[in-house]
Amino acid sequence: MVSAMLALAGFFVSLYLWLWKLGAVGSLSCGPGGGCEYVQTSPYAMLFGIPVAFFGVIGYLGLLIVSLLGLQPRWAERREPTVALVALSGAALGFTAYLTYLEAAVIHAWCRWCLVSAGIIAAIFLTSLVGLRAAVSD
Amino acid sequence: MAQGMNLKPFYWGLGLVAVGGGAWIWASLNRGGVEMYAEPLPASEAAAAASFPGYVLGSESAPIEVNEYADFQCPACGLFWTLTFHDIEERLIRTGRVRWRFHDRPIDGSHRFARMAAHAAACADEQGRFWPMHDQLFANQRAWSAERNPERSFRAYARAVGLDLSQYDDCMQTGRFRARIQAEAEAADNLGITSTPTFVVGRMRISGAQPYDQFKRLIDSLSTQPVPSR
Fold first, then answer.
1. What is the CA angle B2-A15-B145, rounded to 5?
2. Which of B48, B59, B68, B120 has the fewest CB atoms found within 10 Å of its own CB?
3. Chain B residues with CB-CB distance to A4 below 8 A
4. What pTM does this model have?
5. A70 touches chain B (CB under 8 A)
6. What average pLDDT does the structure give for chain B?
């Protein structure tokens, strides 16, 4: 349940960044310094010609669906959804760690919304790990 | 994981987060943006800002003043800037023969971003950088005109001309020069200026993206006679 809530929040954060990248949102609310726009206009904000934020939208949507599936009666007893959550959020956390490293070491600017997303994905990963341990000990 | 639990409160909570997030995205899509600039202001607000004299380039002591009425999104204004204005600037304004006064005359129907561009230029003027911004807007006119919302491009030009971006952002978000732009548009209307670019030199008027020679001839002819008042 916690991971579903977090995934939904992360979905909106990445949707916001993606819409900005598409030009639908005029200016990013980012506080002073404009780090968000600096990061979001850097070449690292695109991967294979697709905005990184779009991968976030898809990833969070996937996490939300898996989290909700895991709550359904037919899946609630099974371990697969939790394993899928750990795997998905683990991969996403790895990718986010790489992006955060880029912010710190290459771009030298911080995008507040990207950090919010990094916090959310770390929390989802930890929550799903706790869920997995509980499932294993059952 | 969730067996035996009542999931209803959870779904309600999830729904609330969804509605909240959706409202946030919706508000972000509509904040500031194009629509704020596209609507003309009521006349009462514009009246208070009617004393703006336009943006001046050149010496106060230049014997001849040219008033340009232009719209940053109008292709003919862009063409004039590209083909003619540099020559005018170099040969007539910098030499002290002509003082140039730029007035906003946004053509609302066909140029959706005209007022927003005029506002970005006004925000640059607030930091003493109107003319570099004016050049950026015309130089990149084709690119930003084709965008869905050129706010970000304008911000990039603001950065390029060396504006303090937090002051620029504040200026754009509050829309503090909207009334002044409206007043300029009405003043141009009152003069019967309905197309852009229009140039008023004394009692003479030139319309359209005319070549340098046309201006040169006019300035030369006016230089030999007393300058009529505007």
1. 165
2. B48
3. 10, 14
4. 0.58
5. yes
6. 85
